[in-house]
Amino acid sequence: MKSYPKIIDRILDAIRGSKTFCVAGHVRPDGDCVGSQLGLALALRNEGKKAVCWNEDSIPQKYKFLNADGLFQQPKRGMKFDCVIATDCASFERLGSAGKCILQRKVFINIDHHESNTRYADVNWVSAREPSCGELIYRLLKVARWPITTPPYRRTRARSNTPQRGPARFTSARNLSHAARTSRKFARRSINPIRFRARGCSNTFTANSGSPPVTALRGFG
Ligand SMILES: [Mn+2]
After folding, report:
1. Cα(125) to centroid of ligand 1, in Å?
2. For the chain, what are the domain ranges?
3. Residue 93, pLDDT above cutoff 60
4. Residue 3 and which of 11, 150, 199, 200 are 20 to 30 A apart at CA?
5. Rounded Cα distance, 158 and 178, in Å
């Protein structure tokens, strides 16, 4: 396997030693935040852990279909967790009310891609080179050799009592990880804007811009 940051081992050790999890995201969650929380929480559940996702604000309407299993919940005071993992959250304050409700935990982990991250947790994996937090979650799951799963969608379950099997089950997560990889490529490479436009991807970058603005890509995060 390719080399990877040693902090991933510390995070996986902490996860393996824990049973109950809260995956917390920032206020007014965006796609990177929701995708990171969901991808991680589903992987944890798949490993037999108990996991919920907490945000001060409810997830945007366009992502509500992802919350098929009621993973995303309003933060509640008085709950205890073995492990709390904050994703895509540059500071403790950005957790909003979720931050006030995760005080009773044994381990606190912070996984983020913002350069401004204040390293507020016990274990902090901050990689500002990455264009999204989802990229870090994807890497974590790959190193752990955990399968990438997607939520069991209601329509599927309504048709059948058995969980859906086969490629369709992975489609969404693959799309998410592909999006993360694609945005990373855009951030690292100097893209020929003419060709880029010709492929119908975007007309965001002008002919004189050289490398696409990383900040524009980070606008998603
Ligand atoms: Mn974000």
Report:
1. 16
2. 7-156, 168-218
3. yes
4. 150
5. 29
